[in-house]
Each structure stands twice: as C-alpha cells, then as structure tokens.
Design a protein that fits this description.
Layout lengths: L4 H12 L9 E2 L4 E2 L8 E8 L5 E7 L4 E6 L5 E6 L11 E7 L2 E6 L4 E6 L4 E6 L7 E8 L4 E8 L20 E9 L2 E10 L10 E7 L4 E6 L7 E6 L4 E5 L7 E9 L2 E8 L5 E6 L5 E6 L9 E4 L10 E6 L3 E6 H8 L8
Parallel strand pairs: 1-22
Antiparallel strand pairs: 2-25, 3-4, 4-5, 5-6, 7-8, 8-9, 9-10, 11-12, 12-13, 13-14, 15-16, 16-17, 17-18, 19-20, 20-21, 21-22, 23-24, 24-25
Length: 347
C-alpha cells in the first residue's frame, strides 16, 4: 500500500510490538530479477499471454503514473504506457491490476476510478467507479457470462490520511465495492452492485490485496493495519465475513494468490519483510503449510502466479515485486521441488 514516511514509521513500531518472530523459511533462488528502475515505484502485477506466444507481465508504476510491460520469460522491459492525468489512457497513482480475456482493469487511487483498456494495444475503453470509489487499491474479478465480469475493488479511504485516522466504524462496511462490467459492441457498461465489509471482528481497517477462489466461494482479503494485527481475513463471495483470520503477521500482509494444484492447492500470501516471506496456507482449511524466501527479493507488494507453461517456465512461474524497483521470477518447478509440494502444483 502507498504510505507516507510517518505511516511507515508507525507501521514499523506497531510491527515491532507484535509477539513472536517470522517463521523459518526455505531459501529458493530467483530465476531472474529484472533491471531496477527507482523512478517508477512499481506496485501490482498481472499476466497476459499475447497472440504471438509471448507472456506479458504488466505492472503499475505509481510514481511515474504509467503501466510497464515486461517480457515474462526474461524480465526485459518491453514498453511503457500512460502518464499523469485524468483523461483516457492517463493515470493518477495507478495501483491494482486485473486481466479478463483481452481487457485490462487498472485501479487508480487518486483518480478514484477503475480504467479499462484493450490488449494488446492498450486502447482506453472507458472507466467506472468515479461516483463510489474514494481510494481504490486492489482488484479481483471473475467471469459472469460470456462477455461480463464481476469486479471487486478494495477501497481503503481514511478520515485523515496525514494522521492515519480511520473512518467511522460504520463506514468500514464500504471497504469492498462490487461492479458488473460488460464490454460488447464497442461499449463499456458498468453496474454498481453495492459494497461490503464487516464492522465487527472481521473489519477491514486498511485494505489492498484481494483474491478469490470461485470453486470454494471464498475470498481472502489482506488487512494491512498492524495496529490491529495485519492478517488475511476470510470472506464469502457475497461479502460475509466467515469468522476466520490468519494469525497476525509481523509485517504488512500484501499480495495474495491462489495456487491451484489439481483441485487442491494453496493460498500464497506475502509478508512484506526484507527478505520477503512467502507463506503457503491450505486452500480449504487455511492451515499454515510452509514458507520460503528468495536470495534477494524484499519488500514485496504485488504478486502474480501464472500456472500455464511458457517457453522459459514450462511448469509455470511466480512473479513478485522487489523493493518497488524490479520484478523477481520464481520457477514453479523449483518451488515444488524445494518445498516438497505435490507434482500437480507445476506442469
């Protein structure tokens, strides 16, 4: 999440007060780390297989207000797109990313909208959410018919960002906004379906990352406020808190992804440390399974887990942001081998 220096200090103090230390983690070497660029401040990731067989790895760049496209096999920077502004194809602090078919969804915190672009040309098709969204961060979506998607957007607005003052508790019921979005006949149509968020034990105080398991009708949503214990909370697809949260992390709970393994699998969650700790939890029971870290990867925000084969990664690949400046890639075959996971977890 995008935070001020004061916010970072407060988070560090809160994290240091939490009991316990990070669990031991297996070290797995990265397949590669892309060249660093400090000017972008990268945040979120998504993948898209292009028609020529190349895998695109897309990232939001908050500081330069643009999108960056990497080659998913070797980390080369292929192109940049956008720039500051509020017009079509422009961005203001872009954060969350999601892909559905040939549509790219981009959450813009300071334009208070989700912009939709067509791949591969990145032509702007329209935007939605301007009337409801206050500080959109994370995105997750699923198909809803042949040409429509249900899009969930986390909205981490504060009463006073300078002092990290939360909104009144009843407004925490608006932490996730839901839309049905359809693109047909050259027109983008978006219908607001309402908001959700618990106001009791399962409240989402500060929220960014969100991911879902459609088969299990489950969402995992990252609670980032270490003052209450940064964790992942379990919600139903229809927005009800299901009464389970993981034990608090020692640092921010950031990117989260579902790792499917032949009908079973794991939830992968980021603990934003240096080096980053990647934790695996059971897909159905949320029990802790194992943890790993890279040789270099640290301070990770977003992740993208790509299960399909690529030329470089025939068993799939995990991408993770590194220190806001680069992207790291982990070969799923190597992760499976080193962590002792079932062979069905890689191709």
């Amino acid at each position: 999440m995008d935070v001020s220096p004061l916010f970072r200090l407060l988070l560090a103090l809160a994290a240091s007060a939490l009991p316990g230390q990070p669990l031991a983690a297996t070290t797995v070497e990265e397949a590669w780390i892309s060249p660093a660029d400090a000017g972008d401040e990268l945040d979120s990731l998504a993948t898209w297989p292009s028609p020529d067989g190349r895998l695109w790895l897309l990232a939001t760049a908050k500081r330069s207000h643009r999108l960056v496209v990497f080659d998913g096999d070797d980390g080369r920077r292929l192109r940049e797109f956008g720039g500051p502004g509020d017009g079509p194809g422009q961005f203001n602090r872009p954060n969350g990313l999601a892909v559905s078919g040939n549509l790219l969804f981009v959450a813009e915190r300071d334009n208070h909208r989700v912009q939709v672009l067509s791949l591969p040309g990145l032509e702007p098709l329209g935007s939605f959410g301007q009337d409801e969204l206050k500080a959109p961060y994370g995105l997750w979506l699923h198909a809803d018919g042949d040409d429509a998607s249900v899009v969930l957007v986390t909205d981490s607005f504060l009463a006073d960002p300078a002092t990290l003052t939360l909104p009144p508790r009843e407004q925490l019921a608006e932490r996730v906004k839901r839309y049905r979005v359809r693109h047909a006949g050259g027109q983008l149509q978006a219908e607001y379906l309402g908001a959700f968020g618990d106001t009791g034990e399962g409240a989402l105080h500060m929220v960014e990352s969100i991911a879902g398991d459609l088969a299990a009708s489950r969402l995992l949503i990252a609670e980032e406020d270490t003052r209450v214990g940064s964790t992942l909370r379990e919600y139903s697809l229809d927005g009800r808190y299901l009464g389970r949260s993981l034990p608090p992390f020692a640092a921010d709970a950031e990117g989260v992804a579902l790792w499917e393994c032949g009908g079973q699998g794991y939830w992968l969650a980021v603990e934003q440390l240096r080096p980053t700790r990647f934790h695996l939890f059971g897909r159905h029971d949320l029990a802790p399974v194992t943890s790993f870290q890279g040789l270099h990867t640290g301070q990770t925000d977003g992740v993208a887990l790509h299960r399909a084969a690529t030329a470089r990664f025939p068993g799939g690949v995990l991408y993770a942001l590194h220190d806001d400046r680069a992207v790291a890639a982990f070969d799923l075959r190597e992760l499976v081998r080193r962590l002792g996971l079932p062979a069905s977890c890689s191709g």
